[in-house]
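note to self: dont lose this again. the chain is below, predicted strucutre after it. 218 aa total, dont forget to put it in the shared folder this time
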Amino acid sequence: MKKTGANSFVVLWVAILAGCASPRHGDTDSASPVAAAVSADDFARRGHMLAEAGQSQAALRDLDAALRLDPQHAQATYDRAMVHHAAGQSAAAMAGIDRAVLLDPQNARVRNARCVIQVAAERNDAGLKNCYHAMLMPGSAAEAQTAFGQALLLLGRPREALQAFDAALKAEPTHLTARYGRGIARQRTGDAEGNADVQEAMKVSPAAGRTFAAASAP
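---
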């Protein structure tokens, strides 16, 4: 292999992030040809980026590849659960996030995700204990409140959800997922200004509402 291989790898990854690559012919849900992923971390990173770009099937292929190479890969396990959650696949999301908690029990982000996913799967208050747990863990207050708001939306409690999203935005005014969530909560309470929140978040990042797929369902 030539010495330039490493540089080419970096350039190709940058191209993905910039959205410069074009899809393969006949495959609208896959990555463009990139440098071959050779390790679990490589596959996990690429799977994460594909998930963020909304290319769920391509993301799952890479995340599955990462987990075949390293069944204990915590990031790939978490991302795989989130892809299933965004697709409304509650059982698969729940199994994945349970595994993620076992692999990384002190990660507040994982605990936040379990809160939302469990509530999405069961539609009762039981999952909220994960949100309360996450609020006591070191980590982002905005992330914790955003997860709490998502769970409350799933439970049909938009006014309480609105308070959680407002708290998230107070802690981190540029938090796009919280902005999107606040928009959904405002819409649910009859506030037309919610449309502006949703549009603003989506304008900055089309992925802002990705994990609200289940929460936004009627």
